[in-house]
């Protein structure tokens, strides 16, 4: 029998909010920004090092999002539990909501889950995160504040043995306004010189709906919180080796701060 609850009272809440009183029109999300596991789930049957890898979370995304939120004076919301518990950028009915295999790694603790076990993850991890986003966006709307939604993610440089050449990917669904504004700026820019990365100064390789495609079936944040509300919205993916270190995160936060401020006036006064 599954437990009646998933999270014990002394465990962290699934949602972290940064710069709650931010004045920027930008509103940031970080759907895969943590790698905690609820105590009741043990280790999900995988060694600890797997949680350090990209299958456990979006490496570097949390630090980049926090620093970018501070620079922009923008509110950011972050999920703190691992995407292996449940994926907060997926509809609950998605087949990989609580994935049984990530890249080539089998997740024994997600095998043969009873509906009640999936429901616990949805109600105690996924739903509080989505409701917190909804509440913050509702408050902004009620206050007459404009909102530009940017979902911050990162991607592994090598997936199933195949190298990915992009430094940054812009993911969008129906709404391509922010992607179209940012793309030419990215294409004429270089990897930040102060990032400490071996490719610093190299012209950016920009993915257009690469390395993933964004859709209603495979994503949640942009389609539901962005497009269904009529908000200008975009998912930004940064290659993880570029933002693994605090130095890289700081450099890219400064880079995106300049870039997002440059296009902001096209959408809000």
From TrEMBL:
Indicate yes or no for the key word Acyltransferase.
no
Entry-linked Gene3D superfamilies: Zn-dependent exopeptidases
Family matches, as Pfam families: FGase
**Source superkingdom:** Bacteria
Q: Which UniProt keywords apply?
A: Hydrolase
Could you cite one Gene Ontology molecular function of this protein?
A: hydrolase activity
- The question of whether Hydrolase is a record keyword is answered with yes
Its name, as the record gives it, is: N-formylglutamate amidohydrolase
| Organism, as annotated | Hypericibacter adhaerens
């Amino acid at each position: 029998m599954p437990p009646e609850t998933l999270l014990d009272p002394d465990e962290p809440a699934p949602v972290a909010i940064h710069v709650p009183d931010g004045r920027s029109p930008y509103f940031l999300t970080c759907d895969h920004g943590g790698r905690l596991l609820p105590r009741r789930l043990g280790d999900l049957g995988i060694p600890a090092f797997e949680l350090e890898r990209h299958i456990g979370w979006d490496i570097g995304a949390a630090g980049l999002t926090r620093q970018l939120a501070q620079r922009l004076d923008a509110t950011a919301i972050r999920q703190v539990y691992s995407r292996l518990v449940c994926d907060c950028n997926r509809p609950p009915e998605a087949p990989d909501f609580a994935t049984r295999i990530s890249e080539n790694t089998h997740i024994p603790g997600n095998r043969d889950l009873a509906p009640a076990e999936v429901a616990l993850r949805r109600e105690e991890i996924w739903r509080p995160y989505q409701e917190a986003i909804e509440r913050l966006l509702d408050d902004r709307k009620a206050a007459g504040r404009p909102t530009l939604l940017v979902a911050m993610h990162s991607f592994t440089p090598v997936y199933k043995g195949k190298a990915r050449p992009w430094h940054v990917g812009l993911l969008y669904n129906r709404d391509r306004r922010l992607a179209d504004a940012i793309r030419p700026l990215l294409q004429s820019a270089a990897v930040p010189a102060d990032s400490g990365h071996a490719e610093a100064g190299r012209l950016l390789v920009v993915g257009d709906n690469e390395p993933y495609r964004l859709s209603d079936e495979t994503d949640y944040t942009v389609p539901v919180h962005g497009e269904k509300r009529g908000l200008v919205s975009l998912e930004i993916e940064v290659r993880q080796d570029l933002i693994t270190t605090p130095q890289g995160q700081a450099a890219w936060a400064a880079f995106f701060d300049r870039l997002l401020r440059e296009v902001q006036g096209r959408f809000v006064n």
